[in-house]
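During the practical work, I selected for study one protein's amino acid sequence and its backbone structure tokens, as given directly below:
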Amino acid sequence: MAETTDWREAAGVEYRAKRADALKRLSSAERAEQRAKERREEAERELRELDIGARAFGIDLLLKGDDGGVVVIQTKQPEVGSGTEPPAAEGQSARQIILMALERAYPNGLRASELRKVVERELGREVHYKTPGMTLYRLQEQEIVRRDGYDWSLAEAPPRWVPEPEPDPDDDDIESLVDWHLAQQQEDEMMDRK
């Protein structure tokens, strides 16, 4: 009977020692996960801020693609007061963000998963994983976008609006001044519809 007790006692000691060691490792791993999560959240915040700055200065955005590669989304240098400045991220819809990203990427296409990352970065929150795909599908039904395999792109080249030079008000050619103002009003209406 003494041998049985000694064996069980030795097994109990070994069990408690191994369990205590495993609990220490688990606790250490949980702390490491928490630190990694905090570092990730900080890096994501920094990426959002960097992208906002890049857009403000017209610097191309670099995003991580599905294949691990880099996707370049070209931004346009906004002309202050021209009406071409990108709207603030607040209040933007996923549809607007997707269309802006596709316009910047044109003529290249983007995958729905890449657009999801752009939408989440712009909104500063997660969106349902189907949001970009369903939005793209509705845009495709309206013939605004097209699909080539997994890649989505604008169906037509985006307009590259370049303002005409303003006519000289001292010029006696009243017709050109009226034509210019009418053209400006039409362009303003087109921009408001977007």
